[in-house]
């Protein structure tokens, strides 16, 4: 069911068609967390995944100038700003229409998506909601030591830490904090920059202990995904010596664990995240590209893309492979990361690489 022969130029186009025609975007404009191929149904609409998908659709629009992508992104953005945003709390719930919990990480991803729409369209509501959410992130999640990862709604009480990485604070949260840096760039408000700089210091302190982080070997692959968020978030400040060293060490660590674990479990998004970080770190002059490993990762990415007569699957990306067997999840985030990694790899070869960290999905 999965194609291993799609060309680099064809891969992003097929991803775009999947976003438009698979039904992963609900009639509301929101995007489902994933499509379950074995159950033939979408999971619930996720505000976080809607934010990621907006970023992917804006990237596709930038690549192709195909207005269909911007129209789909606008539908998703207006869903977030008019239906799922809690104006009183300044936050986005985890899933919709349920509103039982809110994640620090999700809010930052959503803000970054809305800011891409703001820059693409000039529609003021996207900026205003982003500012409100950015301020609420600082006010409601920062406990003075770290960022509570999850709040219970509507009382905004922190949910007890434990379980998986996403239920605990950590260096991965720096990717969400990029929302503050983008808000500073858009508004000039010093508070946003101050909050971002605090997040950088906390993430750098946490990062050395994040990997492997568990004695359960296959769960390390999931932590590679989270750790790669941290590496992505270092790109804007990669010239700083401590950040440059963290990038160099982090790329090597993710590469090592990915190659050690992938015969048993490989996530498509980890391949894509690692390749993107390599490309940006090389372009920024922070970490020279290991061309052999990067080429291997680029070659592996198409093997996760569905080729199917079923439009709910065709062009999308599976979450990953277990012991070489495709997992039954057509995943918007995996699709977004893989399309961008493949496109940026091809654009680098053509001398067209986009250096802006704000393009990162």
Label this structure with key terms.
three-stranded antiparallel β-sheet; Glycosyltransferase; single chain; globular; 361 residues; disordered N terminus; mainly alpha
Count the strands? 12
Distance between the termini: 26 Å
Reported for the largest beta sheet, the result is:
3 strands, antiparallel
Helix and strand content put the structural class at mainly alpha
Shape verdict: globular
The main sheet orders its strands as 1-4-5
Low-confidence stretches: 1-7
Order of helices and strands: HEEEEHHEEHHEEHHHHEHHEEEH
Write the layout of secondary structure elements.
Layout: H1 10-21, E1 31-32, E2 35-36, E3 41-42, E4 45-46, H2 47-64, H3 67-84, E5 95-96, E6 101-103, H4 104-121, H5 124-141, E7 150-152, E8 157-158, H6 174-187, H7 190-206, H8 217-233, H9 241-261, E9 265-267, H10 268-283, H11 291-300, E10 320-322, E11 325-326, E12 329-330, H12 332-349
Antiparallel strand pairs: 1-4, 2-3, 2-12, 4-5, 6-7, 7-8, 9-10, 10-11
Protein architecture, described:
- With 361 residues, the chain is mainly α.
- It has two domains: 37-43 and 210-361, no CATH class; 44-209, Glycosyltransferase.
- Helix content is 55%, strand content 8%.
- It is built from twelve helices and twelve strands.
- Strand 10 and strand 11 form a beta hairpin.
- The longest helix has 21 residues, at 241-261.
Quick summary:
The chain is mainly α and 361 residues long. The chain has twelve helices and twelve strands.
């Amino acid at each position: 069911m999965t194609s291993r022969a799609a060309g680099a130029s064809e891969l992003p186009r097929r991803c775009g068609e999947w976003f438009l025609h698979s039904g992963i975007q609900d009639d509301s404009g929101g995007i489902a967390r994933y499509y379950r191929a074995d159950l033939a149904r979408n999971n619930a609409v996720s505000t976080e995944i809607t934010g990621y998908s907006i970023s992917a659709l804006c990237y596709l629009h930038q690549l192709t100038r195909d207005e269909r992508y911007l129209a789909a992104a606008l539908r998703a953005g207006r869903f977030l700003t008019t239906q799922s945003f809690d104006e009183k709390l300044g936050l986005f719930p985890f899933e919709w229409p349920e509103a039982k919990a809110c994640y620090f990480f999700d809010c930052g991803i959503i803000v970054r998506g809305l800011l891409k729409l703001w820059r693409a369209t000039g529609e003021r509501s996207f900026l205003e909601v982003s500012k409100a959410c950015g301020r609420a992130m600082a006010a409601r999640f920062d406990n003075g030591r770290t960022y509570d990862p999850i709040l219970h709604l509507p009382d905004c009480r922190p949910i007890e830490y434990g379980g998986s990485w996403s239920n605990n604070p950590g260096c991965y949260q720096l990717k969400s904090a990029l929302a503050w840096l983008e808000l500073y760039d858009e508004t000039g408000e010093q508070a946003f920059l101050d909050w971002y700089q605090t997040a950088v210091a906390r993430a750098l302190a946490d990062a050395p202990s994040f990997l492997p982080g568990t004695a359960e070997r296959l769960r390390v692959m999931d932590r590679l995904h989270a750790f790669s968020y941290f590496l992505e978030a270092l790109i804007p400040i990669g010239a700083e010596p401590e950040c440059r060293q963290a990038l160099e060490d982090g790329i090597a660590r993710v590469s090592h664990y990915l190659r050690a674990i992938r015969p048993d479990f490989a996530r498509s998004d980890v391949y894509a995240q690692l390749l993107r970080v390599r490309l940006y770190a090389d372009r920024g002059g922070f970490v020279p590209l290991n061309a052999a490993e990067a080429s291997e990762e680029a070659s592996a990415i198409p093997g996760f893309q569905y080729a199917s007569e079923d439009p709910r699957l065709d062009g999308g990306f599976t979450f990953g492979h277990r012991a070489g067997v495709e997992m039954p999840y057509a995943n918007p985030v995996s699709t977004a990361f893989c399309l961008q990694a493949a496109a940026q790899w091809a654009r680098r070869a053509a001398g067209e690489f986009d250096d802006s960290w704000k393009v990162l999905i």
